[in-house]
Amino acid sequence: MNAPLHILLLDDDPFMLDLLQDMLHSLGDFHVQAATAARDALAVLPGFRPGLLICDLSLPEMDGIEFLRAVASQGYAGDVILLSGMDSGVLRAAQLLATAQGLRIVGACGKPLARSELAGLLARVQGTA
């Protein structure tokens, strides 16, 4: 039996974190850790070792792009799903920048993220799609 996928959520909106956690738990057996600040997520990253990072782009103090740059510099080798309430052009630009940093982006999604879209992305991450 495979160990549950470790997923690190980063969003400054506690309601969005709760919504994502509820969706993830309804979709499978995942070990989920959530952070509302990029610096907290960076501190958790080495010990938690997530296979998937779900990251909002619009964050206070350190934005999502800066966070992803820091994640890449730590050698993060897992998958990334980008979230944003901004327009699709911002998501595409962030996806290109993150990919250029060596990160593996499996999705760049608008908020709120639909449960069916999350399910499809998880299937890709787990190799079942």
UniProtKB/TrEMBL annotation:
UniProt keyword annotation of Phosphoprotein present: yes
SUPFAM superfamilies the UniProt entry points to: CheY-like
Coiled coil: none
InterPro entries for this protein: Bact_response_regulator, CheY-like_superfamily, Sig_transdc_resp-reg_receiver
SMART domains reported for this sequence: REC (SM00448)
GO biological process, any: phosphorelay signal transduction system
Gene3D superfamilies referenced in this protein's UniProt entry, alphabetically: 3.40.50.2300
PROSITE patterns: RESPONSE_REGULATORY
Keyword Mitochondrion assigned: no
Response regulatory domain sequence ranges: 6-126
Modified positions (4-aspartylphosphate) in chain numbering: 56
Keywords noted in UniProt: Phosphoprotein
Descriptive protein name: Response regulator receiver domain-containing protein
Annotated organism of origin: Pseudoduganella lurida
Species lineage: Bacteria, Pseudomonadati, Pseudomonadota, Betaproteobacteria, Burkholderiales
